[in-house]
Amino acid sequence: MTASHRSTFRLRIARGFAVAVLACSITTLIACSTRGSKFSSLLNQGIMPVSEENAFMGANLFLAHEMEQSVYLYNFMKERGAPQGIELKADNEDEVEAHFYYTAGPEEYLAKPAPRPRFNRNKDTRREWIIIGPFAVDKERYREIQQLQRTNGGAFEIFGRREFLGQQASPGTQVALRPVFVPTPIPPKKHVAKRKPRVDTSTSETVSSKEPMNFDQQALKEAKDMAPRDAQGDIVHTVTSKTETIQSISQWYTSKSATAAEIAKKNGLPEDAKLSPGAKVIIPKTLIANPTRMQ
After folding, report:
1. Which candidate in 21, 114, 147, 275 could, as Cys together with 128 as Cys, close a disulfide (CB 3.0–4.6 Å)?
2. Which of 65, 67, 64, 109 minimizes the C-alpha distance to 85?
3. Average pLDDT over the chain, rounded to an integer
4. Is residue 149 located within the same domain as residue 226?
5. What pLDDT score was predicted for residue 34?
6. Are residues 265 and 158 in the same domain?
7. Total structural domains in the chain?
8. Is 23 part of a structural domain of the chain?
9. What is the mean pLDDT of residues 67-91?
10. What integer pLDDT is reported at residue 227 of this predicted model?
């Protein structure tokens, strides 16, 4: 090979290497610019609702695209379900922060893209998402979250197929940003009415069981238990039961049943007379041995 041939060969190699480098750079720039501007119109637009039926809404398209890139994000959505709304905060997509809002609670999750390896940053277009939470929604966003439509999930086009990610219960315990104290209810005390002491109103005098009775009190008590008498001093007994007989009345007041004939004669009744309640029986004072009222 002559010197001229060698120089021509070297020139061709240099030109081919330059063309390859230029093509690679152009491809990388196109890929980066496409990736960076694909959802740039959704950044810093506030809370965007996720549709339950339309997979081609902006929030649905963003989540579907990122679930194709991130296994972590896809598995999170499978477990927790699609949020009712998302918010993207950043100046560019590579440094975006995604906020996922759920009306139940309400609660919020924060998702950030994991850093790309330095040696493969330009070639690898995939990115993983790291999700933390749940968090309680702050006061400023509470009303906005409550106004989101409560859905059962979201519809997405993932790798060319329609997929519905339904709502599931929150897998974790909500982190309370503001402590909430819920007092334990104390049952009301039942009102028990105090019983008033029973007062014997049959006499004007009140007898206390703790103090000894004086002479007047004792006389009143005895007078209360005594059988009533007429002007001659004879006892006037009032029959209160059909079982009473002349014999039982005689036994009570005279302590002798033998005096029944004399009591029957005094009242003009036969000794075996049947007595009705309310009838009056006179017991002569000369026969009285027990002056107390017959019980």
Report:
1. 114
2. 109
3. 78
4. no
5. 42
6. no
7. 2
8. no
9. 91
10. 85
